[in-house]
Amino acid sequence: MSDLGGLPTMSVVPSAAQFHAHATSTFFTTLLLISFTLLLLFYLRRRQKVNKETSSLRLPPSPPGLPIIGNLHQIGDLPHRSLHQLSLAYGPLLRLQLGSVTTLVVSSPAIARDVLKTNDLSLCSRPDIATWRRYSYGSLEVALSPYSPRWVSARRLLLTHFLSPRPVRGLSAAREEEVRTLMNTVAAAAASGHTVDLSKSLMSLVSCIVCRAVFGKRFAPAGESSMSEIGGVLCLTAEILGGFVAGDYFPWARRWLNAVTGVHGRLERSFKEWDDLFEREIKERERAGTGSSEDGTYASVLMRLLKEEQSNKEGGLTRDAVKAFLWDLMFGGTDTTVTTLQWAMAELVRTPRVLARAQEEVRRVAAGKSYVDEEDLPRLSYLQAIVKEILRLHPAAPLMLPHECQQSCKVAGYDVPAGTRIYINAWSIGRDANLWDKPDEFRPERFEGSSVNYQGQCFELVPFGSGRRICPGILMAEWVIWLTLANLLHGFDWALPAGVRREDLDMSEVFGLVVSKKEPLVLMATPAKLL
């Protein structure tokens, strides 16, 4: 510094720190400009190529989009609702450009039939999504992997050994024991005058049932319905899979985008937790020897199959494939089942008429019993109608897992080029006023005497999908849902906490891989006076 008139002044020559800061700022500004220019050039070139390829095709209606991002800006925090509004304006088959991904959105049962049945083989693949590929050990599991002969074999194995009627029935004792543990936990809260956080209790229940089926143990304190170590891993995974991942919409920049947004790091941490769990359980069974295969758990069955294939040198089932199956079995039905139960109890306490009728049916069928057994469930027709109505009104996955076109075809008279991503908006179909009388109302009676079901042949109710990609765990899910609801309604009278009116119960949603209730469901339980 120099002294001019007694006032200190900065030297016209910058310091090393100033020079470094200026250079850094200039470098990043230049890098940003270069990146944006390259991105724009890539977009214009790709757009020109796409326009040339599709100029002769008959494509579905599409709202105008913006350069580079396409229609992404028109998708809000609740995409199933945003897409529903767009479908009202542009039709039940909607074409969107989400970043660089061409997407179709289906919002009518007739077009859903065209996608899931008529063109099932052409449209039954899955897109290549980085998070999916990681959790599936490089596309070795069933739910998230692209269609291939290996996928067909994997699905057959999953159904035959784990999700067909015989193995599902074999888990009835575990389901009933865990539901009774939940009932004891609720009874303890009721006796002390405390509220019950059903959201947390239901997650504990379902995760314990799944853990017992897969590993033969609960991962939670004995006799308690409390969150286990698995619950945290499940929640984190659902958050990652259900969140917005920029790389999914700009595949050519996926690695860079997932790194700078932190997705890659979170994904690897979550994946490692799963992998460590699976490796620990596999090694435990390897140490135990062949006798462990007789316990009937999913993990032991997989280890037996792995050993048999290694002995026969077939090589179709690898250690990573075993882990991929374990991930499918652990994650596949947990969040969706919990969410369905949560919405069901919320709607029931908001609708006393339905709650009273459901309780009358359950208590009549299970008269003289402390608990409802699985043998009672087929006689609970009104309860089953309630479950159908919940799956219509609150499908756990309102935007079914996306399909990808593997060979060009026509849907509803429009051309669908290979590589197109397709979403079925089950939420929109369930709210269609042309299909359902007063579609926003919770009215289980609409299903009484109706042949409509969710087994994949009625396209006005497709919460589990249809065709080759129908959820293989339907049977397991419905038995857990029926048994849990039946017992909660049989054993307790339910009410909102003091000071909370029915109309004030928060029913807002939070979007993810499944759409769950934004706020926990907290209720008061009073032990029922059973005859």
From TrEMBL:
**Name of a matching Pfam family:** p450
Q: Which cofactor does it need?
A: heme
Checking PROSITE patterns in the record gives: CYTOCHROME_P450
Q: Decide whether keyword Lipid metabolism is in the record.
A: no
List of residues binding heme? 471
Q: Which UniProt keywords apply?
A: Heme, Iron, Membrane, Metal-binding, Monooxygenase, Oxidoreductase, Transmembrane, Transmembrane helix
The record's GO molecular-function terms, alphabetically, read: heme binding; iron ion binding; monooxygenase activity; oxidoreductase activity, acting on paired donors, with incorporation or reduction of molecular oxygen
**Which superkingdom, per the lineage?**
Eukaryota
What transmembrane ranges does the database entry give?
Answer: 20-44
Q: Does the keyword Metal-binding apply?
A: yes
CDD domains reported in the protein's UniProt record: CYP71-like (cd11072)
Q: Which family does it belong to?
A: Belongs to the cytochrome P450 family.
For this entry, the protein name equals Cytochrome P450
Query: Which organism's genome codes for this protein?
Result: Zingiber officinale (Ginger)
